[in-house]
Every structure is written in structure tokens, then in C-alpha cells.
Amino acid sequence: MTVPTNRREAAPPLAWYLTDAARAVSEYGMFLAAGPWLPALPRGDGQPVLVLPGLMTADSSTRPLRLVLKHLGYRVHGWGLGRNIGPTARAVHGMRDRLDDLAQRYRRPVSIVGWSLGGIFARELARRTPDSVRQVITLGSPIRLASESQSRAHRFFERYSHLHIEHWQLPLEHGYEPLTMPATSIYSKFDGIVAWRACLDDPSPRSENIAVLGSHLGLGHHPAVVWAVTDRLAEPEGAWRPFRAPALLRHAFPRPDVPAPSRPATGATA
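Predicted structure:
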């Protein structure tokens, strides 16, 4: 196990962790209250969208977001692989088959939205099959995890490590080139499960970080996140531009942070 050596590798504050679930419930109430604003959400071209759940959750957790995207005309799909317990053979091969099927069915690249661990999976899929992926959007995903201590969900991940067929080096994505398609990382400094610094993507002409004010467990239905996701999906293919919050919602999107340089790889996780 790696040991945190500085603030950057510290776990989320205990107060945020202990209140994360309660805040997520409150944010779901905000989501329901925002229902009348649904027609005002940005709309795209009806592209296929694959939504991947986080650790220890299944498609039921992403249902609110998928219902919104379906209402907006997207061909949206869950992953259909039950509970996410990490990179098992079923998950790794099943996601690839799911993506291939959707790309062939709709004859166009698929946008992938991944929550937490689902976002790490989404970026792996995009690197392995770039021709099948239009863009990647991650929600509270520790894509630059440098230490196990940066995730309070690590014990749950380890519980099923004997079933994992992939074992990742830390820091995640160290030395990787930026994704070739647009990539958006949505994160919150008030995340109680994942250290927000681990969620910051490296700057590139087609990548960005979007900050929101919310919990980790509520990212899939937080109104600001829903707006940001729909705004990104509405970008025309081949004409991507960085996110700009509308004037009335700027208070919901703090200025995004800039990631610090990654340190050298130290070992494996999972």
C-alpha cells in the first residue's frame, strides 16, 4: 500500500465523507425541483451514449441521468453488467462488447459518461477503441489517482481484487498521452469519497475540468452536473469548444483548478 506523503495525496476530509450520502439525498431533491427547467437543457444530435456506473453500484444509480438524456433524444444505454465490482473479466470484456455493439448498431461513435470508477473504465475504453468513441465525460473519477489513500472506497475495491483481471499502476495514466477525443472531467472539492485533486485531467486542446459544488454520491443527479453533461454532449462532432456556464448558472460552477505534475509510478493497485 502506498502512503500519502503530502496534501495532494490526502483522503477527502472526514466531514465531507460522513455527510456525503445525506448531501446526495438533498441534491436529488434539487434534481426533482429542477424538473420544470428540463426543456431549457442543451440538446445535441441524438448520438448514442453509454453510461457506466461507479464502484459497488449498478445501472439503477445512473437511471436519473439516463432518463434526462433519453428525454433529450439521445440513444442512451446503461452498461447492463450488474454491479460494478472492478475490472473483472465480465466487466472488461462486457464493456468492450457493449461499446462495439452500440457503435455498429448506430454506425457512429459513442459518447461515454462514467461515474467514479466508471469514468476510469470509460477512458480505458477510449484508448483501446478510439474510433468507436466520440467523447468521454467523467464524474468524480480519480483518473490521476496517485495513492490508495485518495479514495475512501479503496477497501471495497480491494475486497474483490481476487476477481480482477487488470491491475493498474499508480499514478493512474502516468506517462499517457491525452485522449484523442474530447474529454471532460467533472469534479467537486466537496467530494467525500474521492480526493478532488485526483480527478483533474492534464490540460490539452481537447480536455477540460469542470468544478461543481456537490457530493460524490450525488454527482449522477446534481442539477449542475446534468447541465454540464448535456452541454458537452450538445457540442457538434468535430467542433468541440471548452465549457462556458450560462450567466445565470455561473455561481454553480467555480473556477476549475489546474493539476500539479504527476509523480513517478510507485506500484500497483487492485
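Summary: Residues 14-33 form the longest helix (20 residues).
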